[in-house]
């Protein structure tokens, strides 16, 4: 397996508020994530998982420490540059889907391409092709309110993928879904992972960690445990377990 | 290409809140329409005056009571408008003096009165009565359509009517010989003037199509025997130098009056003064009208601020998928500009309709004109209003922190 670090955090901290009201959301975190990894992030509420995802996705900046993305320091690049990196390298999947309610499915999926300056025809074409792989081609002209939660999340995943980003950041992607829909979403994510994407997924559901090849536990803004550091061997057993689930289907 | 997407998104957003978009645009429409209408009225009045000068030619001048102010170049900057309302310093003798000055072809006084005029068909409660002499058509380039013009040698109790008023008062087949009553006294119609397309005369600002013309003696009889002569207009002989004739008239009148209580102005000079006055009036009125445009602009800003607050989450989502601050700014600015531009276009359209309605309802002696210049100004002003009042909400939208924006509950 290749192991280029696509994400490298060094002594990274994030504080919210000032003075007595300061919250330390991330406390001196160091983390390397290699290209092609599927990382599950777990931990109790308030442990800093979302904060970590926001910083990884360049929606937020750290208070201290360094963040190298594909070897490039992105800690203090301009907001314009950060928007461009979000658009080209990162795809977000949120717990609450976050589709634009006034746009149909096709327009929602093609939105990232618009900000990349693609022509309307090219972006609708790309979005349509992608929706087909998700089995959603009949829903192209549906409005978000006409879709089920599982369908909405698949549309959101399609949107995250439309720019062919190398990193997918999913913050509790199955948090609002039932077991059946969760399973479908996890299969989609695994397919994406198989195609070589790096996936970082926050989840509260321990059973979903079987899809991941690395599990990070967070506690009070720190990394409490990291499966890749404890037992490298276990990764292989996890892999076979993931394979077993697929075989069962 | 990107602008096309901006416009598409903006239109979609504006459509989503149809009613309030329309109300906001309506505010701009009213502002732009009132400014445009004022400018169009001013333009129409100026145009009317200009064409009268063109018609009168370069050899007509006017003697007015009151002093004249000139700047260092000798250009007329203004005259004592109030002189028209005081006892005039011009006398009947002055008419004689002017008309006998060498180089003067003819001179005609204008004594303006107002009063009711009634004929067989109709009564007009308040119209312009002009007491003058027989030289008026020649000096002011009016044409007699039927009959003849007032002539004190024939009969004091005769009247000549403007074209419009004649149609209103009389049965049209046989106008001359009919009786009309002016301020209670009976007059015989001896003639009707041809319709004038530029009826707003330079001198007393009367509408020649709506005026009743009587002899100076008749005018005096209506005014306790006093001649309140507002202007004496004269035409220089063909081939003579108007400036030289003006100097001669001035010298002779000064010798008579022994005072500088009158002014001699060529129609060209009168034009520049009148134009200046109209420009001033137009500017001030347009300034007042612009306040409503300001209010419309504030409406745009208000509604855009509401939109930015309501759509905070949308802004967060757009930023998460890679929109730059600049792209968000453009999206919201485009919405504001579209509202103000659409309002501007509709406002100019409404002003056009309004101009038509005003001309029609108030029987204006001139037609308001929406020139390309006014059209361009209205559109650029509404563009400016859109940018001015849209930029602040747009900057607010662009500066939203995506983290905070995404956390907004819907
Ligand atoms: N914008 C903010 N301002 C102040 N404090 C914040 C802000 N965002 C997060 N925090 C604090 O930072 C800490 C970590 O929050 P975070 O959202 O990362 O937790 P989480 O692990 O995602 O929790 P959950 O599992 O409930 O989603 C919490 O104590 C939270 O109150
Ligand atoms: Mg969270």
In terms of topology, how is this protein built?
The complex is a heterodimer of chains A (249) and B (410).
Chain A: E1 5-16, E2 23-34, E3 38-42, H1 49-56, E4 64-69, E5 72-73, H2 79-89, E6 90-93, H3 105-115, H4 120-133, H5 149-161, E7 167-171, H6 179-194, E8 198-202, E9 214-219, E10 222-226, H7 227-230, H8 232-248
Parallel strand pairs in A: 3-8, 3-9, 6-7, 7-8
Antiparallel strand pairs in A: 1-2, 1-4, 4-5, 9-10
Chain B: H1 2-16, H2 18-56, E1 60-65, E2 68-70, E3 76-79, H3 92-99, E4 104-118, E5 123-132, H4 136-139, E6 144-147, E7 158-161, H5 163-169, E8 179-182, E9 185-193, E10 212-215, H6 216-222, E11 231-236, H7 242-257, E12 262-266, H8 267-310, H9 312-320, H10 325-362, H11 372-398, H12 402-407
Parallel strand pairs in B: 5-10, 7-9
Antiparallel strand pairs in B: 1-11, 1-12, 2-3, 4-5, 4-8, 4-11, 6-9, 7-10, 8-9
The structure holds adenosine-5'-triphosphate and magnesium ion.
Adenosine-5'-triphosphate binds next to β2 and α1 of chain A.
Order of helices and strands of chain A: EEEHEEHEHHHEHEEEHH
Largest interface: A-B, 28 and 24 residues
The hetero molecules present are: adenosine-5'-triphosphate, magnesium ion
- Strand arrangement within the widest β-sheet of chain B reads 4-5-10-7-9-8
Cα end-to-end separation of chain B: 32 Å
Question: What is the gist of this entry?
Answer:
The complex is a heterodimer of chains A (249) and B (410). Chain A has 249 residues and is α/β, with parallel strands linked by helices.
Keywords:
heterodimer, A: 249 residues, alpha/beta, Rossmann fold, six-stranded mixed β-sheet, 38% helix, disordered C terminus, B: 410 residues, alpha+beta, 2 domains, six-stranded mixed barrel, two-stranded antiparallel ribbon, binds adenosine-5'-triphosphate, binds magnesium ion
């Amino acid at each position: 397996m290749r192991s280029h670090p696509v994400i490298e955090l060094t002594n990274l901290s994030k504080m919210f508020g000032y003075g007595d009201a300061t919250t330390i959301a991330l406390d001196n975190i160091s983390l390397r994530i290699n290209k092609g990894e599927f990382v599950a992030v777990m931990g109790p509420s308030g442990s800093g998982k979302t904060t970590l995802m926001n910083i990884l996705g360049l929606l937020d900046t750290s208070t201290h420490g360094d963040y190298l993305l594909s070897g490039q320091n992105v800690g203090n690049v301009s907001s314009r540059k950060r928007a461009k990196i979000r658009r080209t390298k990162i795809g977000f999947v949120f717990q609450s889907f976050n589709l634009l309610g006034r746009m149909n499915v096709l327009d929602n999926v093609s939105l990232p391409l618009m900000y990349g300056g693609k022509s309307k025809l090219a972006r609708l074409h790309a979005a349509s092709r992608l929706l087909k792989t998700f089995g959603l081609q009949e829903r192209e002209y549906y409005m978000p309110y006409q879709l089920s939660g599982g369908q909405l999340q698949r549309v959101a995943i399609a949107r995250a993928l439309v720019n062919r980003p190398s990193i997918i950041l999913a913050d509790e992607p199955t948090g609002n879904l039932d077991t059946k829909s969760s399973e479908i979403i996890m299969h989609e994510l695994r397919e994406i992972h198989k195609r070589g994407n790096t996936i970082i997924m926050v989840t509260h559901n321990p059973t979903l960690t079987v899809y991941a090849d690395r599990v990070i536990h967070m506690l009070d803004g720190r990394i409490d445990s990291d499966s890749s550091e404890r037992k490298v061997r276990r990764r292989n057993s996890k892999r076979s377990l993931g394979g077993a689930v697929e075989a069962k289907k | 290409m990107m602008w096309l997407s901006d416009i598409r998104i903006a239109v979609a957003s504006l459509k989503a809140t149809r009613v309030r978009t329309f109300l906001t645009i309506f505010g701009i429409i009213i502002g732009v329409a009132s400014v445009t209408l004022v400018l169009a009225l001013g333009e129409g009045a100026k145009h009317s005056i200009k064409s009268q000068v063109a018609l009168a030619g370069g050899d007509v001048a006017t003697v007015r009571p009151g002093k004249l102010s000139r700047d260092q170049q000798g250009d007329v900057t203004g005259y004592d408008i109030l002189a028209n309302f005081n006892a005039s310093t011009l006398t009947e003798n002055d008419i004689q003096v002017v008309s006998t000055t060498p180089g003067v072809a003819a001179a005609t006084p204008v004594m303006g009165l107002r009063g009711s005029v009634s004929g067989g068909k109709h009564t007009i409660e308040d119209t312009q009565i002009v007491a003058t002499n027989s030289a008026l058509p020649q000096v002011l380039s009016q044409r007699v359509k039927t009959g003849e013009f007032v002539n004190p040698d024939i009969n004091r109790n005769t009247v000549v009517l403007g074209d419009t008023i004649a149609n209103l008062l009389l049965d049209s087949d046989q106008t001359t010989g009919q009786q009309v009553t002016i301020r209670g006294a009976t007059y015989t119609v001896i003639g009707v003037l041809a319709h004038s397309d530029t009826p707003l005369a330079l001198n007393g600002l009367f509408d020649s199509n709506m005026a009743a013309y009587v002899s100076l003696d008749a005018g005096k009889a209506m005014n306790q025997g006093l001649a309140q002569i507002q202007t004496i207009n004269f035409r220089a002989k063909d081939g003579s130098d108007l400036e030289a004739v003006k100097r001669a008239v001035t010298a002779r009148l000064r010798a008579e009056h022994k005072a500088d209580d009158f002014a001699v102005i060529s129609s060209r000079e009168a034009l520049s003064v009148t134009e200046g006055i109209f420009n001033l009036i137009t500017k001030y009125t347009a300034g007042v009208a612009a306040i409503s445009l300001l209010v419309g602009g504030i409406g745009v800003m208000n509604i855009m601020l509401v939109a930015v607050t309501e759509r905070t989450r949308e802004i967060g989502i757009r930023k998460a998928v890679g929109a730059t601050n600049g792209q968000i700014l453009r999206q919201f600015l485009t919405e504001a500009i579209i509202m103000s531009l659409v309002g501007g276009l509709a406002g100019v359209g409404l002003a056009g309709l309004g101009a038509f309605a005003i001309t029609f309802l108030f029987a204006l002696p001139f037609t308001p004109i929406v020139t390309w210049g006014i059209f361009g100004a209205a559109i650029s002003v509404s563009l400016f209003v859109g940018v001015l009042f849209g930029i602040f909400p747009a900057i607010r939208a662009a500066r939203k922190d995506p983290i905070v924006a995404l956390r907004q509950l819907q």
